[in-house]
Specification:
- The protein is an all-alpha fold.
- 75% of the residues lie in helices and 0% in strands.
- The chain is elongated and about 55 Å long.
Length: 187
């Protein structure tokens, strides 16, 4: 095994995704992922707690960027303006690798356990957004409504970005979904 080559985590992530797409998530073992990456199972566990973490390991970076955007939004910004800034930050994290994101989403969509994990992540993100808005002085229920609405916009825009052909940027899809939400809410 060539354990000393650089970017072990990236190699493991790529190998896992290949195997998840080829065989399915449940049919893929950690040993097979490590072997495909040219590493050991022990090295796998240095980078990931389990094989699900290959798909969800970036959640902390997403949360950090989103919350940084909430904290850095202008003091007088309306709740949905703060959410818009958070969505721009999310697009910066999530909008980097569309092909990988498509594969990741197809793996998640094929597995109820992974779908549940994704929903838990999104619920946690909505709660974090609402908490950040409350810290900015936004009262309830406005903070919770804005946080939940932000996650709905993220889900709709992300789905559109994954499925629409062309050069649609995730940040553009987020802004358009946020605009549509304003139109729908105004009716």
């Amino acid at each position: 095994m060539v354990r000393w080559e650089p970017d072990a985590a990236g190699r493991l992530r790529a190998a896992a995704m290949e195997l998840y797409v080829e065989r399915g998530f449940e049919q893929t073992t950690v040993a097979e992922i490590a072997l495909r990456a040219g590493l050991t199972a022990r090295t796998f566990f240095r980078h990931f707690a389990d094989k699900r973490e290959v798909l969800f390991g970036g959640s902390a970076a997403l949360f950090d960027e989103v919350m940084r955007a909430v904290e850095q939004a202008p003091a007088g910004a309306a709740p949905m303006q703060v959410v818009a800034a958070a969505l721009d930050a999310a697009a910066g994290v999530l909008g980097q690798h569309q092909d990988y994101s498509r594969q990741r989403q197809s793996v998640i969509n094929a597995n109820p356990e992974l779908q549940e994990r994704e929903l838990i992540k999104l619920v946690s993100l909505a709660a974090a957004l609402a908490d950040g808005l409350r810290r900015r002085g936004v009262p309830e229920p406005d903070a919770s409504l804005a946080g939940e609405a932000g996650v709905v916009v993220l889900r709709v825009a992300f789905g559109r970005w994954l499925t629409e052909p062309g050069d649609l940027e995730l940040s553009q899809a987020m802004r358009e979904a946020l605009d549509r939400l304003a139109v729908v809410a105004a009716r």
